[in-house]
Design a protein that fits this description.
Chains A, B: This is Peptidase M20 dimerisation domain-containing protein. Chains A, B: Belongs to the peptidase M20A family. Two copies of one chain form a homodimer. The first copy, chain A, contains 14 helices and 20 strands. Chain A is an alpha+beta fold. A six-stranded mixed β-sheet of chain A has the order 1-4-8-5-9-19, with helices on both faces. In chain A, strands 13-15-11-16 form a four-stranded antiparallel β-sheet. Chain A is globular and about 80 Å long. The two termini of chain A are about 20 Å apart. At the A-B interface, β11, β12, α6, α7 and α10 of A face β12, α6, α7, α10 and β13 of B. The structure holds zinc ion (ZN) (4 copies).
Chain lengths: ~475, ~475
């Protein structure tokens, strides 16, 4: 096993070089949502391939299809970058997933500095992608480079799957992974994803669960065209009135889901889980203050965390077809589409949830006795993901964290979905782990995204130790 | 009195010339909502001034102020055109209001022909402004021109108030009218506005009432920034849930307003009114079919017409701050603003309505026990307008219609508001009448706006006879 002190020193000495690497990555504005930047994604992938090849990796760009943009133009999808480092049959193989595209960003959105320059300030590195997900991808490269320069033998084979469309729905990725189930992915023993965040600002963690998502539309059609409320108000049954009533019946004032049959599908909470939740380092007042929310649904830490990860939640997102602008418009919308979704948890299955939701709304609708046309339908469903956090793979992650931070990680879940996690688990049938390196206040997807220099450097150390620990791992 | 047969023949002979006049007007794209066309409004006003001067009118362009557009650019507002024709102290003075600006229009919106060319097809004149409101303004000019060419003495003085911003909220008009209350408007005995439509396609009418409008916002603030439902769903009280519930309590499934104290403010319906409504030529099946509505709130003609004109109605227009686009977005909005309005009728006063609405919602909110921040406030209020349709002024309008069409007009109201109507009534303290010449299917504000050639020509005749009838009118 490599001496950690020596490893840590080597990494610290290279801080400037590692920051330059991230600077280079951030300066390529690889925004996947904007057609103008499509070429920058290709550039970002080429540049990353070059970095990986410098480590001796064998790279392959897997062609993806075409994408039709909302305005009708057709763009080439960026390829998925497959890289292989090491091909020793006696070693196990780790698959690392990351993404090279970023969310849109502009100074005019309220950034304090140019989002596509890496700005160092107060121990933080500001820039779009600094934490999501270019920082973690560069940290993997830093870790491997350091081990190589220390002439340490990495005890595993490493594969990378790096995509350029994550922030736009990972278009094409699942198809490519499915096609490579029996080739590139066939020998994968572990998958590790560093594309999430610590629960707080100081305590590292490992994540073993993600909620799934069931998204629904309720359509109410009144007539052919939008009507002027002055001319027609009082003569038609208005769709907004029906829709508001239906949506008011989804949850109680306290957030309890009123849809029959939903809560019954949730796996019972075990005592062991409660103990695990109790141990988690989480300050509920900080959480509320960060949100600037007036009050949370509970003051109890375990209840709030379980509400985020362990129980389903229902959110009403908005209405398509109604007036949504500023000011006053006196329209009676011809057709409105209410949108809401449920975050689902084990043992909920999207199909069973769909049935409860549509049955419930159909029943409400028949009570309403409105002459309007009504439709309710799911638009997408993804299952929750749950990994065995007692798997030796997690122990390797935990050991790496203990080595670097001197503390056990918290075992947490994420409330949102990272669909590729489930894809890797299902295709490899092996353990998948989420190993975040950024802090909870990194502002991914928001203005002034950053990664702390300490998180970037300690993250590089954790990843390096983790790679070494995997050698002792009998999954 | 002029011989109607002779007048009618004279007008018919000039059909080509009158259509050319309207063609010229339509070809000036005086769109008030679009900065690019601001200069066209000035051109349209200059051209109309020239037409009026050819009739011998004394014209004055009353300077209006500046307008800040949503993008921050500042535009000059077009002047209001005042014209005076005749100054005989022994005659009464009629004030005619009309507008020279139009709604936006483009081929790409779905027009079958260029909206800024007057296209004659199947007895219809298609073009933006053909019926709203260039057609009626040109019909006034046609009428006066014909009487002059027939060497008939017009028994009244005529004043015109023609504006260029009606389709953009009549910016500045009220101020200008108020300033001229004791000068230009001081001797006005009657005001006539031809800027609305028949109730159907064949029966002419006079309108004596307009509903007022009270518009409200309900604001619910949850936290500082929009939240991701995966990460935060289940921990905060969601604003959309509060808002949908509040808005579901505004009206019943059958459209009854649930806000306490509103229905009590409505003036009792008299037997005479019911008789007037019963006589109105209105086919409820045609109305429903034109809307392509699945069902109306009633199958009874009088009930439907009273719901449009004689009773208040409440419409929920939409929500600002929530997700309103196509597709699926998993946002928990930080702050949502629900928008709804009431159309109000005599004897409702905006202030009293505001109090009922805010009291009712405040009471609901205290029942809700939500920790979110709540606010309800009115954004605008306009009073209903009601004229005395037994006034001799209306008899002059009715006689003109009987002379041209051989039938009594229907006496109707409009459900929407034309705020300038109330301004004229309040400033002159004299009778105001709405005398439409276009048909209900003229598609003002929509694609393929038209006026039927018969409506344009018969309208010109009605206006000419009305001008003559006013001579016998002791208001
Ligand atoms: Zn990411
Ligand atoms: Zn992201
Ligand atoms: Zn108009
Ligand atoms: Zn109009």
């Amino acid at each position: 096993m490599v001496d950690f002190k020596k490893l840590s020193d080597c990494i610290d000495k290279k801080q400037k070089e590692f920051i330059e690497r991230l600077r280079h990555a951030v300066e390529i504005p690889s925004v996947s949502a904007e057609a103008d930047h499509r070429n920058d994604i290709f550039r970002m992938i080429d540049w990353t391939q070059h970095e990986l090849e410098s480590l001796g990796a064998k790279c392959e760009q897997i062609k993806n299809g075409k994408q039709e943009m909302p305005d009708g133009t057709v763009l080439d999808l960026p390829p998925v970058l497959f890289a292989t480092l090491g091909n020793d049959k006696s070693k196990k193989t780790l698959c690392i997933y990351g993404h090279l595209d970023v969310q849109p960003a502009a100074l005019s959105d309220g950034w304090d500095t140019d989002p596509f320059k890496l700005i160092e300030k107060d121990g933080k590195l500001f820039g779009r992608g600094s934490t999501d997900d270019k920082g973690p991808v560069m940290a993997w490269i830093n870790a491997i480079q350091t081990l190589q320069e220390m002439k340490v033998e990495i005890p595993i084979n490493i594969k990378f799957v790096l995509e350029g469309m994550e922030e736009s729905g990972s278009v094409g990725l699942d198809d490519i992974l499915i096609k490579h189930k029996d080739t590139f992915l066939s020998d994968v023993e572990f998958t590790c994803i560093s594309d999430s965040y610590w629960l707080g600002k100081s305590k590292p963690c490992l994540a073993y669960g993600l909620r799934g998502l069931c998204y629904y539309c309720i359509e109410i059609a009144v007539c052919q065209q939008d009507l002027h409320s002055g001319v027609f108000g009082g003569t038609v049954h208005e769709g907004m009135s029906d829709l508001c009533w239906l949506m008011s019946q989804l949850i109680d004032a306290d957030g309890t889901i009123k849809i029959e049959g939903i809560n019954e599908q949730v796996a019972p909470v075990t005592d062991e889980e409660i103990e695990l939740y109790k141990k988690i380092d989480f300050n509920i007042d900080d959480y509320r203050n960060d949100l600037k929310a007036h009050k949370l649904v509970s003051d109890d830490k375990v209840k709030i965390l379980m509400n985020r990860w362990r129980f389903p939640s229902l959110s009403i997102h908005g209405i398509e077809g109604a007036f949504a602008g500023p000011g006053a418009k006196t329209v009676i919308p011809a057709k409105v589409i209410g949108k809401f979704s449920l975050r689902i948890v084990p043992n909920m299955e999207p199909k069973a949830v769909d049935k409860c939701v549509t049955d419930y709304l159909n029943k409400l609708w028949s009570q309403r006795k409105s002459p309007n046309q009504f439709k309710v339908y799911p638009t997408k469903g993804s299952r929750p993901w749950l990994a065995d956090y007692k798997n030796p793979h997690y122990q390797a992650g935990a050991k790496a964290i203990e080595t670097v931070f001197g503390t056990e990680p918290d075992y947490i879940c994420e409330g949102g979905s990272i669909p590729v996690t489930l894809t890797f688990q299902e295709l490899t049938q092996k353990n998948v782990m989420l190993l975040p390196i950024g802090a909870c206040d990194d502002m991914a997807h928001s203005q002034n995204e950053k990664i702390n220099i300490t998180n970037y450097m300690d993250g590089t150390k954790v990843l390096a130790v983790y790679l070494m620990e995997l050698g002792n791992c009998s999954s």
